[in-house]
Each structure stands twice: as C-alpha cells, then as structure tokens.
Prior knowledge:
3 domains, elongated, 7-stranded antiparallel beta sheet, Leucine-rich repeat, LRR (right-handed beta-alpha superhelix), 9 helices, nucleus, binds zinc ion, PH-domain like, alpha/beta, PIF1/LRR1_PH
Amino acid sequence: MIWGCIYWNGVGTLAPVDGDINAVKYQEILDEHLWPVIARHFPGDKYVVLMYTYAPRIITCNVDVVNRNLPSANIKKSSKAQHTQLSIGKKPGGGSKEAPLFLMMCTAKDRNGTKFKIKDNVQQIFGKFLNEGKATIRFKEPEQDLCLSKADPLQLKNFLNLLKKAAQGQSIDHITLSVLAPASAKNVEKPKSKMIVTSRKDYPLTTNFPSSLISLQVSSCKLKRIDSRIFDLKKLQVLNLSENCVEEISTDFGKFTTLGELYLNNNFITSINPRFCLQKNLILTLSILDLNYNQLKLLPLQICELCNLYNLKLNNNLLESLPPTIGRLRNLRLFSASQNKIALLPASFMQLKLEYVDLFGNNFPDEVEDSLLEDNVGVPSLVEACARSVKKYRVPYTDEDLHGHLCRYLDSARLCWCGAYCFESSARYIHKVSLKDLTSTSTSIGDAGRNEVPIQGFLCSPQCLNKFKNNPRAYWK
Ligand SMILES: [Zn+2]
C-alpha cells in the first residue's frame, strides 16, 4: 500500500506501507511523512491544526453500564459488557441548530437505544487506557458510568474528543451530525464467531469469510483444494472440512496459530505431507485430528511430532501399519483405527497412555504366537552406525539434503524399547498383548470378543536382548 498527501500547490511525499494501517502505524506515518511536508511548505505557520474528515460520530465497542447509586462494596458486578453502537447526534425532529446533542447507546437487545444528554452532563472522561481501546464516560444524570472496551484506539480518541467538545458546549458545526436513528442489526450484532456451510450454493464466493470466525465448517462442497482465504482466518480454533474431495494435507495448515480441532473425515486423502506435522503452531495447538473415511495407506513418521494430540481418528482407511514411534504421542488418550489393514502393532504402542482404543476389523492374525528372531544382533555396519546417530540426535533431513535412498533408509528406523534406534542389525520379537491390559475401555478387535494383538518390536543390542529374555514386559510397566 502507498500513503501520500496532496496540498494546494502540489504533492507531498509518497510512502510505501507494509500490511494494514492501525492506530500506531498511522501516527508513525504522520510523524515521519506529514510533518516534514508541512514544515517544508508552510514554514511560517506556527499553528497547524490537524483535523480529520473522518471524525466518527458512531463507533462500535463493548460497553458495560455501571450504576453509581448501587452499593458496590462486596457485591459482584452482575452487568456484562455488551457489543454496542455509540453515536452522537440530535433527536429526530430536533433539527434546529440549537437543539441539544445526545449520546445514543444501541445494543442488540435495545436497538432503539438509550439516550444521554451531553451538554453539561458529562462529569468526566477517563482515558488513561485509550491506547488499549478502553475508556470510561461518567454522566451526571443518570448517575451512570459507561465503561468502553475493545474499541479501535484511534476512532475512540476522535469520538471522545468530539464528545468532550459537545459537553463543553463548543461548536462542532464543521462535522455533519445526522439525526439519531436506531442501529442496524449488523452494527450491534456480535462479531460472527461460527459459520457453517453445507452446500456449494452457500459457499461464499463474492464475500469474505468473517475474520472473527473461531469455528468454521465447510462440508459437502466438493472442495478439492482448500481455499487460501480459510488459511487467513487467524482466530480459527475449529475447522471442519468433512465430506469434500481433499486429496492431500498441505503445509498451509501451519498458518493457523490457534487451531485445536481439524476434521477431515470423508475425503480422498491419500497422503499427509510430513512437513504438515512439523509446523510449530500445529505442534503446540492441535488436539483433535479426524481422518476417518479416507484413503491413507501410510502415516508419516513425523505425525508423532504432534505431541499435543489428544484424539486421533483413523477409522476406515487403508493403513497396513502404524509408525514405530507412535508412543511419542504422550498426550494421546483416544485412538481409533478400526477397519484398516493393520496386522502388527509397533512396540511403542504400549507406551501410549490411552483411555480408549478401537482397532476392530483389522488384519490381525487369529492366533498369535510369541516369537524371537535373534540372528542379526551384532556389530552394526558403518552406514547403520551413522544412521543411528542421525536418528539419536534428531538431525533433521529431507530429500534436498540427502540422497533419497538414504532418506528412506533413515525412515525405516526401528525403535528399540530402550529408546535407541536400530536398523538391520537388530533382533525382532513378536509378543502377544491383550488390549485390555493397555486401557480400561477398548473394543474387541474382531468377532467373539477377541482382543489379543501381536506387538512387533526390535532390540538394538545384545544387552537389550538379554533384558528382554529375562522379562519381556520389563519396559512396559
Ligand atoms: Zn536397545
């Protein structure tokens, strides 16, 4: 954006502006760019008056009305700040020049408004926190204080200046004041925080999504890609994009700073971009991820970085396995992956502190037998020794840093129950575990109430192998 100014004899400076203009930025612009122009072109003028064409006679903010007559000691304030439109003007019919001015307060419940006489009736204006958009107007009659908050600081400043002048009986004729009229519903309604779109014809194409949205549902709109305008909603906490045609989970979700719940069920998602799981904002905030009814064959290892996940839903996908490091989801309490093709669970699954698990309808074998394959525990190769270090110190790697072959090798790391990583040079065991031992609330995994599943684990060294032989459950309890 460009800011500029013009005057009688010509033009002033042009100043580029980054982003939106708020009160602070506007004052900076005036300081840096307007005053030099005035000083240069009007050197003789000692008094320059800065007047705004836009001196608002209407502002919207939150207002809490406090009655000073009520005893305040030990009584909890019952009133609550309401979204309000405040305006200055004359009563209908009082169009003459001398007619008194009033401050009118309109809320959603009272759109016709309450009027306060202004002249000689404003006892005091408290404006210590103007820059935070807060102020208090004290009236003599009725004995009430209007506590304003959440206003635009610059608008509030100008509005109160106008009020002050009117209260002192000064002339404010240069500002056109219209007759007070009831507020329109749009102006007194609370900013919209929730929006639900469930058909393509209701999808906003020409208007924007309200920036105040906290919860947004866009379902059954055949979305293939997610609208970039959605990613600009900075206050969004719940996003429901179920029943669309989304194919990939992109990294754009990292733009959300407060997203706690993401519903992507009933789409055509075949892959999750590993970088999606590494977005710092999501790692901090995401607690519910619903991917039921998609086409996922594999979860990226990086999904285990979303350490604040509380509820992960993966029902009705094509998963054949779960990431070997899934135990790192230390806040996960609800996990469901029914109707997939999982045949073995990784050993770290036992580290999860689940309250509910559902693994019904997978490819678990009917009979599970404990087995131990210890051929390969020995000295690791040089490549494996390096790879173990890369994984141990969590050195980040991508296809850009390493040959793709090495990346896939690193991705194939097996997690020993001691927490170390290993590759081919490891012993493998399969151990039978009842889901009942894992959590109090679990569904059976198949007909007739079966609930025993095979856990596959790896052991990185002869020491770990010996410990396992002595007590296969040593690390789980
Ligand atoms: Zn080990």
